[in-house]
Amino acid sequence: MNNKWTRRQAGDPFVKKRNLEGHRSRAVFKLEQLNKKDKFIPKAGTVIDLGSSPGSWSQCVSKISGPKGKILAVDGRPMSKLEGVTFLEGDCGDPNMIKQVEYLIGLNACDLVLSDLAPNMTGIKLVDAAAWRNLIEIAMQYVTLFLKPGGNFVGKFFQFEDTEEVVSNFKSQFSAVYRRKPVSSRKESREFFIVAKEYRV
Ligand SMILES: C[S@@+](CC[C@H](N)C(=O)[O-])C[C@H]1O[C@@H](n2cnc3c(N)ncnc32)[C@H](O)[C@@H]1O
Questions:
Q1: Phi and psi of 129, rounded to 5°?
Q2: Could you identify the atom of ligand 1 that is nearest to the CA of residue 134?
Q3: Which of 50, 52, 132, 193 to mutate to test ligand 1, by most ligand atoms within 8 A of the CB atom?
Q4: Structural domain 25-199, CATH architecture
Q5: Are the C-beta atoms of residues 47 and 69 closer than 8 Å to each other?
Q6: CB 89 within 8 A of CB 78
Q7: What is the residue extent of each domain of the chain?
Q8: Cβ atoms of residues 173 and 188 within 8 Å
Q9: Which residues approach ligand 1 with their CB closer than 6 A?
Q10: pLDDT tens digits, the chain, 201 residues: what are they?
Q11: How many CA atoms lie within 13 A of 146 on its CB side?
C-alpha cells in the first residue's frame, strides 16, 4: 500500500463509519444512499448481486428483504457465508455460470439485478474502458435473461468516451433511468451509478 492510499483511507469518513459499524466494505454506503433515494430493494423479492465480494451489498439487501427474500450473489473472488444469500464463485460472464443462475432462479424471475462489477483498473484509459464495457454488457445479459418485466437494475458505471451509448441502451429498455453519484462515491473517481426502473421487455 502506498502513502497516498493510506492517507486517503485515514481521512475518509466512510472508512471510519464502516469500521465502527462493522460492514464488510465501505461500498455498502453507496447502496444504502442509492436505495434511500430511489427505493429499489424489494421486500421478500429475488435479487441477483453481480460482483458481490466481500459481501456488503448482499448483506444490506438481506437485511431489507428479510427471511422471505432470495439473494443470489456472484463473484470471481471468494465470499464468506451470509445468511439468506446463495453465493456462486466464478466469472459471471461464463456461460456455465449463467446456466447455474438460470437453474437457481429461472428466466425472467428476478425483481432486481445489482451490478457493482468493476475491472482491475490499469490507468490506461482504452484498456480500462474496454474491460468495463465487457462487464456492463455481462450485466445487461443478466437483465435480459433474468429480470422480470417491471423489475429494476442498479449498476456501477464509469465515465469513459462511449459510456453515454451504454446509458442510452438502458434508457431504451426501462421506463425511467436515473444517473446517481452518492456522496460516498469518491469525487475524483470516474464511477457513478445508474438506477433503471421498470424493465420493459
Ligand atoms: C467493487 S467490488 C464489489 C464490492 C461489493 N459490492 C461489496 O459490497 O462488498 C467489485 C467486484 O467485482 C468482481 N468482478 C469483476 N469482474 C468479475 C467477473 N467477470 N465475474 C465475477 N466477478 C467479477 C471483483 O472480483 C470484485 O469483487
A1: -60, -45
A2: 19
A3: 52
A4: 3-Layer(aba) Sandwich (3.40)
A5: yes
A6: yes
A7: 25-199
A8: no
A9: 24-25, 27-28, 51-57, 74-77, 91-93, 116-118, 135
A10: 567 777 777 788 888 899 899 899 999 999 999 999 999 999 999 999 999 999 999 999 999 999 999 999 999 999 999 999 999 999 999 999 999 999 999 999 999 999 999 999 999 999 999 999 999 999 999 999 999 999 999 999 999 999 999 999 999 999 999 999 999 999 989 999 999 999 997
A11: 28
| One-letter amino acid of 199 | Y
State pTM to two decimals.
0.95
- Nearest atom (ligand 1) to Cα of 117: 12
Q: How many A from CA of 108 to the centre of ligand 1?
A: 23
The residue from 39, 63, 70, 156 that is catalytic is: 156
Cell numbers 422471505 label which residue? 68
